[in-house]
Amino acid sequence: MSEAVLDLHPVAGRIGAEVRNVRLSGSLAQTSIDAIRAALLQYKVLFFRGQQHLDDADQEAFARRWGTLVAHPTVPVRNGTSALLELDSETGGRANSWHTDVTFDLAYPQVSILRGVVIPAAGGDTVWANTAQAYLDLPPALRQLADNLWALHTNAYDYASRFQVNAAGLKRYEEVFTSTIYETEHPVVRVHPETGERTLVLGHFVKKLLGYPTTDSEQLLKIFDSYITRLENTVRWRWSVGDVAIWDNRATQHYAINDYGDQHRVVRRATIAGDVPVSIDGRRSVARSVGEAATAKAVDKAVSV
Ligand SMILES: O=C(O)CCC(=O)C(=O)O
Ligand SMILES: [Fe+2]
Fold first, then answer.
1. Which of 17, 124, 189, 191 could form a disulfide with 260 if both were Cys (CB 3.0 to 4.6 A apart)?
2. How far apart are CA 267 and CA 130, in angstroms?
3. Closest approach atom of ligand 1 to CA 245
4. What 3-state class would DSSP assign to 76?
């Protein structure tokens, strides 16, 4: 069934659409799920207002319609749920850094489904960027360069240098989440398994570009990141309680704006298992090492999402 059955309202010019008149649930008709998936592939992120009827179990039941629900690899699931990740501003859950979810994992999630539970009176918007359009925006010579690049993604990096994490928060997460280190090599350009589009696979889990000295890698990454996050390539969502955002995690990055101070904000995420990325020349991503790292510092919830 085509997306024509959906009441679709594009939000920004290049990414994002609101879907009206749908009541999300685990028992939606398959034709509706198919139409929502088709719209998601086109718009990359979809927004549904007024879904206050969803509780945690309902969110998980809806998420299961998309595939296999997967828990975050290192952050404990929310109590009473099978796989929900809660981001609570009072316990450090502020993802104010551009990323694609869980790219330190080999087959990182295909789709994330986020529900607004407690939303500040002002602030706390989330922004998504279109990584397929960013690829197309590259000048041909840069595109050619990207086509041949691979990057090392990891959940272990010096996050304190990149985020405004206070000392108490840092210590708490180091104590609580000292855990498994993941390292994965992904192509910088992957072929989307459903649309065939080429998308850039970068974001804050990238440690470096393979084959380049660190300083060169940093400079090249800055160039590619600038194409991903330019404002024309993004959509910004002003949350209300009960809103649900669904994004194609293979074709987007996102950033949760941390501009709401001490106001409380809680969102809960379900993620759907993805597949191993494939480069344009048919090579699959490679997991370098997955194991216990006794001396490794834990990765905090805010920055490991
Ligand atoms: O807090 C948000 O709006 C987004 C957080 C995030 O990065 C995620 O849920 O994956
Ligand atoms: Fe995220």
1. 124
2. 22
3. 3
4. coil
Residue 27 DSSP SS3: coil
Tell me the pTM: 0.92
Euclidean distance between CA atoms 272 and 70, whole angstroms: 6
Tell me the pLDDT tens digit for each residue of 181-202: 899 999 999 999 999 999 999 9
| Ligand nearest to the CA of residue 120, numbered in listed order | 1
Which tens digit of pLDDT belongs to each residue from 105-158?
Answer: 999 999 999 999 999 999 999 999 999 999 999 999 999 999 999 999 998 865
Calculate ∠ Cα 81-86-92, nearest 5°. Answer: 150
Distance 141 CA to ligand 2 centre (A): 30
Report whether 43 contacts 35 (CB < 8 A): no
Q: How far apart are CA 130 and CA 250, in angstroms?
A: 10
Question: Which of the residues are catalytic?
Answer: 99, 101, 254, 269
112 lines ligand 1 (CB under 6 A): yes
**Nearest one of 31, 32, 25 to 60, comparing CA atoms:** 25
How far apart are the CA of 61 and the centre of ligand 2, in A? Answer: 20
